[in-house]
């Protein structure tokens, strides 16, 4: 039998990013997983000695040896087909366990003294949940808890006073690899899922990256396709172009245009992309996410007017078009944090009863300075062309009920 735990470690093993939070003196804090911030890339690679390496170190290996690493492992979780790295087959759950081990090492706590809390999509069935428990068991943790990503997000907002016990809220989770929508009711001891979650398996940040990459390829008129992909230098160059596309996508959350450098054998140029071009390509897909959100609400036996608002989580939700369309289509207040990637893991780190302990208003009164910082950071990302959508409000402000959107009230 494992010894009682003295630490609590929450880990969000996302498709593109992994984040972790540890509880110190009953207060959760983010764990620094890499040199570029609290999160690390959900990337695993084989090191020179045959060991598994994660995060930025794995990124560096893949840059030189693309066949030695893997990305988007979460999309393969539960798949019985192995992922081959450097000629060696690995089960997707084994690579997931490596990511969890990296988070544990960064947290600096002993597994045998730690309760690990792992997040998961709300629509995962028992097969994947059992496999996720097995990943934790291999780590030797004192105890394991699983919490759905939307429930963790709601728990986080309730603990800060922005939601109250009894509130029903829609969670719009637009992450790196998938989109999920769910309706959650805040309870005194946590959050309860209402109805059936709805999702789009192949829609996330990496798919938006592909939209940008396709724009680059089309602009260059076939020059990228003409490159010899069997050439290791070309493969590395294409990988760098894809990274440039990701950077451009993120830049367009704040700027009206971005430039992608394309440097490959026989090719050295730049491609410009504007926010309008990206939004035109994405608008139909974001419309699909809003329809999925509406289905989640209907499955809960509710209408939009029964909700206090929509919580945006996941890195892809930072695109200004997302808040514009979600707020405009639903008529509901939209809420997000400056760091949308941390919401889920910070909520997961909270134990049962944390919502009741926060007491709503007490937490709200405690953090005005932090709220101003979040509002300022978010305002820097929001274009002046979106004044009609309530993208921002003070992070310590609770949702206010609004009348149903006229189009939905019939």
Give a summary of the structure in a few sentences.
This protein is α+β, with helices and mostly antiparallel strands.
Total number of strands: 18
Major sheet details: 6 strands, mixed
Q: How large is the share of residues in beta strands?
A: 15-25%
* CATH structural architecture of the largest domain: 2-Layer Sandwich
Q: In terms of per-residue confidence, which ranges show pLDDT below 50 for 5 or more consecutive residues? A: 356-410
How many structurally independent domains? 3
The portion of residues assigned to helices is 25-40%
Give the rounded overall mean pLDDT.
83
Going by CATH, the homologous superfamily of the largest domain would be ATPase, nucleotide binding domain
Distance between the termini: 57 Å
| Name of the CATH class of the largest domain | Alpha Beta
CATH topology of the largest domain: Nucleotidyltransferase, domain 5
User: Which structural class do you get from the secondary structure elements?
Assistant: alpha+beta
Question: Count of helical segments?
Answer: 12
Rough shape? globular
N-to-C order of helices and strands = EEEEEEHEEEHEHEHEEEHHEEHEHEHHHH
Q: What integer value in Å does the Rg equal?
A: 21 Å
